[in-house]
Amino acid sequence: MNAIVINGPMGIGKTTVGTYIADSNPGTAFIDGDWCMDLHPFVGNKETRDMAVNNILHMISNYKECSVCKMVVVAWIMDDEQVRENLISGIRDMGLNVKSVTLVSDESQLRKQWEADVTCPWRTEEWFNVSLKSLEYFSSLDDCINTTGKSVESVADLVMNSIE
Q: CA-CA distance, 41 to 23, in Å (whole number)?
């Protein structure tokens, strides 16, 4: 079974690309990492991120045992290398083939996507600046796909074509 882990800054299109892949590939489960640490009020610390990784791994383990499930796609902001490594190694330990990708873009593309997402309450100017500042970190990772000027379909194709 394949597992795709989609990383990147807030607003880059992780959920959009991940759900597109799931919708286009029957038998694919989609997990949004934010669902796995949906605390109110939000607390993003080591304890809650570790909990989220454990929750994601538990869900993947269940999907792995389901005869209908053929692939899993996880979309989540992993701006901590240890969190990313714990998730990927945990999936590998289950015997799944893992492909990790990080979506990045230029500032204008991120802004365009940010402004188009009118339903997300986090799409404020303050959070845009946080996301923009994180682009430098995400762009330094070795598994980047630059989404600038690309459609959701073409980014999804690049992700799918990168699976070994």
A: 31
Domain coverage including residue 133: 2-161
pLDDT in tens, 46-72: 999 999 999 999 999 999 999 999 999
Q: What is the CATH classification number for the domain harbouring 79? A: 3.40.50.300
Residues with Cβ < 8 Å from 113, sequence gap 6 or more?
A: 11, 12, 13, 105
Averaged pLDDT of the chain: 96
If DSSP codes are grouped into helix, strand and coil, which group holds residue 74? Answer: strand
Determine what percent of the chain falls in helix, strand and coil, rounding each to the nearest 5.
Answer: 50, 15, 35
The total number of structural domains that make up the chain: 1
pTM above 0.85, yes or no: yes
